[in-house]
Automatic annotation (TrEMBL):
SUPFAM superfamilies assigned to the protein according to its UniProt record, in alphabetical order: Periplasmic binding protein-like II, Winged helix' DNA-binding domain
Ranges of residues in domain HTH lysR-type: 1-60
Entries under PROSITE patterns matching the protein: HTH_LYSR (PS50931)
InterPro entries: HTH-type_LysR_regulators (IPR050950), LysR_HTH_N (IPR000847), LysR_subst-bd (IPR005119), WH-like_DNA-bd_sf (IPR036388), WH_DNA-bd_sf (IPR036390)
Coiled-coil segments: none
Pfam family, one: LysR_substrate
GO cellular component terms, A-Z: cytosol
Organism of derivation: Secundilactobacillus kimchicus JCM 15530
Similarity remark: Belongs to the LysR transcriptional regulatory family.
Transmembrane segments: none
Keyword hit for Transcription: yes
Keywords noted in UniProt: DNA-binding, Transcription, Transcription regulation
Protein name: Transcriptional regulator, LysR family
Amino acid sequence: MQTRDLDYFIAVAKNLSFTGAAKQFQVTQPTITLAIKRLESQFDTPLFLRDKKQNSIQLSTAGSQLLVHANRIKQDIAEAQREIDNLKKEVIPLGLPPIIATYFFPKYVPKLIQKNLLGQINPVTIGSDKLLDELVSGTINIALIAHAPAITQSNRWGEIGQKILLAKHSFSIIDNVQQPLISKTGPLLPEEFLNLPLIALDDNFIHATVMNYLFEQGDFNKKIIFRTSEIQSLKKMVEAGAGIGLLTDLAIDNDDPLIQHSILFDAPLSFNVYLAYRSSHILSPIEKKIVSIFVN
């Protein structure tokens, strides 16, 4: 079977037209017709039903089934091409969400330099939820991902075969030191802070999912007055007294002029850092070395 025949078949199925497929690939219509005939001969069944009166075609049952597999085959081939291209370059795309890239990854840099591996890493800095999509699709093979086990996040989390827990951190409520909006000291229940003005990280952060989860647990007056994609911006606005914020303690430095409250909740809320890669992906020698830096 020629993969080009599958390309032509997918195009005919999409356009329901041999002529349309020929225009799409800038080939003659007989080229498309021969490709479909080769596939029909190989599978020994018609892939299209032809209505000569209406001068139209539609997929047969067998054709519909082949279309599912043809699309999957094309995705697998594209994924294999990306992986092989990366092997040739000896540059490994590594998924790094913003907080992990800033506050977690740097502690491994000395070891990566020592092993001459840092220059072979191409960081892909996007949110954990988008990184899940990139992993499952095969756009990247390895990532450090944040996950909150108590909360149902993207259903793609279960599609990743290998997940190695590297660290576990808490979520905290941060407040202004000079004029705090929260009078209580110590741990907080959700009802003790969710009605206050909130400065929130945007949807690129797992914090947005956690915040939405907390709001769903009761009848709270949602007061998110500002969303930001910058961790430092969140801290500075809280420091200025604009509102309180939700932040993992991984991103809170000892010298930050902020009050930090832990959260009391039935299901412990934790910011877990995992090294993740697809079970179908065979780690290259360089990838194995990089993985070993994080897990050993």
